[in-house]
Structure formats: structure tokens, C-alpha cells
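The following record pairs a protein chain with its ligand, NAP.
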Amino acid sequence: MKTRLLGKSGLEVSAIGLGCMGMSQSYGTRPDETEMIDVLRGAVDAGLTFFDTAEAYGPFINESLVGKALAPVRDRVVIATKFGFDIKPDGTPWSGVNSRPEHIRAVAEASLKRLDIETIDLFYQHRVDPNVPIEDVAGTVKDLVAEGKVKHFGMSEAGAQTIRRAHAVQPVTALQSEYSLWWRPLETEILPLLEELGIGLVPYSPLGSGFLTGSIDQSTTFVSTDMRNNMPRFTTQARQANQVLIDLLAVIAKRKDATTAQIALAWLLKQKPWIVPIPGTTKLSRINENIGATEIELSDEDLREIEAAVAQIDLHASRYPDHLEKLTGI
Ligand SMILES: NC(=O)c1ccc[n+]([C@@H]2O[C@H](COP(=O)([O-])OP(=O)(O)OC[C@H]3O[C@@H](n4cnc5c(N)ncnc54)[C@H](OP(=O)(O)O)[C@@H]3O)[C@@H](O)[C@H]2O)c1
């Protein structure tokens, strides 16, 4: 398995990680826990060392699942989790963010317990809290690092100035934000900033929540609990309009004897050596397929071809409903 370093932090992880969110929520019926434990252990056997969870996934149960599955191989894996939503201990639906220092501390303790580990390898702020100065957030994580409860600090969907201010207090190891061929706003300001500061990028939804794999088209239906029913980019019209992007990936995939999912991931890996995508899947066969992306070398000519073709496409990619979108880029 190829490995990568997340920025200048020294944190080394498999070149592709595993997003575990879908094992507990988001994409319809919740998969069986025992099966997911097998998938997680299979992922480790396949060479993955980087696992992504969050207090919010479930909530809570995804951390417990990841903790249980990875306990036997704890010393071989890097576990990333996240704080920052205002989740009550009983997990009742929440709407806001909460990065008050005492809340961060409480979440860290609870996450350590659920994950059944001594130290959180990478602790991300899931969304910026506009009511708490970022220096206070970074300062709290700095204290947790000093106490040995956290090794690395991460942020998610944060804006450039916020990242810079946080990094001045406690070095940020990785930013986890959405990045893929159909969502590229961070190319203008954020990628150059990460390069300047030596911060790694962990693109989430690197397969466009499944769309970029080519396994979804305008006739696909999602069960009622699937979050894609509420995402503007998954309306029938948007899927129809965006199909041209999948057709492009399919042409390149055929030439490279690869799958469209692998080309979508290989494109991300090619952008910067400090990028580590975390595709999510509940299937071991797809973990192996996605790992295969690390063996695909896109040439500069391939990249130019993709760029030129994408420039012609009028993508319909708006992602979240407004109340969620406004929590990004702060
Ligand atoms: N920081 C944040 O705010 C944030 C937000 C969203 C997600 N995340 C993290 O990022 C991770 C990945 O994002 P994501 O799960 O939203 O989206 P994603 O990785 O872009 O796509 C996941 C979807 O693609 C399918 N899939 C995966 N590999 C496939 C393949 N080779 N062929 C066909 N289908 C495939 C999966 O279905 P199957 O299970 O059926 O394979 C699943 O429905 C999450 O698990 C989570 O850890 C973070």
C-alpha cells in the first residue's frame, strides 16, 4: 500500500483512507454491525491505515463501531474523529454547532471512550462555530495534545482566514473538506494556503456521494432515509445534466483499463502529493477497487483532457440545503 504524509505534520497514512459514515447513516438502511466489522477488518488486511469517523455519525454509534472493529489492530491504524456539533448526550436531533472549550473537552472524553483508545490520532472541528473565537478552539485542542489525549488537530470546511488563525495557535495537520471533480471551490484560495502552511487535505465525498462512480443515473431511486433525496445535486434534472461528466470519466477509465470511481480518485491523488481521499463504502470489493486508484497514473495529457472537457460542462452540483451550506467556508 502506498502511503502519504499529511502536510508537514509527519502523520503518515495509506494513500487512500476509508470514510466510515455510511456504515451508520446517510445512505438509506443502516448496514448490519457485524458485517461492517468484517468490512473494516478487511480494509486493514487490504492495507488501509486511515479511518474516518465522527461523534455526529449515528450519532455516536459509528465511533463505537470503528472502535470495536479496529481494537485488535489499534497500533497499525490512524483513527480520525470530529467534534463541533451541538449534540445532546441522548443523541436527539440537533441543528447547531458547539465548539465551546468545555464542550470540546467533553466530546474528546466521550469519543475516547467510544473508540476505546487512549489518544485520538486526528481530532477535527467538524464545522466552524461562529460564536467561539477559533483561537479558543485551537487552544483547547492544544491543551488536549499536551495532555496526550489528541495527537493532531484538523478542521473541516473552514475558510482561509480561520485556518490561518487556528494554525498560528495549534498547527493544523489536515483540512477535511469536500473536493472532487464536481466540487472544486477550494482550488482558488484554500489549496494554495494549505501548500503554504504545510497542511494536508483529506477530500470528503471524493466520489460525489457515489455519483462519480457511474453507478447512479437519472433513473436511480433512493430509499426515503437516503440523504441524497435532499441534495440539490441529486434531483433527476441535476443527474441528467451531470451525466456528461460520468461519460467523460468512463472514456478515460476505458483507456486506462480502470473504473470511473478509480479515475475520480486518481484525479484527486494527482492534484497534490499531500492529498488523501477518504471514499466511503460498505463493501469490501469496493474498498479493493478504490485502493486500485493508487496504481493509476494519470498523465499531464490526461489531466489536460479532463480539464478541457470539464470546462465545457455546465455542472449542477450544489450540494446541501441552505441551512447546512451556510455552515461552510466560515
Ligand atoms: N467532514 C464532513 O463534513 C464530511 C461530510 C461528508 C462525508 N465525510 C466523510 O467522508 C467520507 C466519504 O464521503 P461520502 O461517503 O459522503 O461520499 P463518497 O465517498 O463520495 O461516496 C460514497 C458512496 O459511494 C458508493 N461507493 C463507494 N465506492 C464505490 C465504488 N467503487 N463503486 C460504486 N459505488 C461506490 C458508496 O456505496 P456503497 O456503500 O454501496 O459502496 C456510497 O454510497 C464519509 O464516509 C465521511 O467519513 C465528511
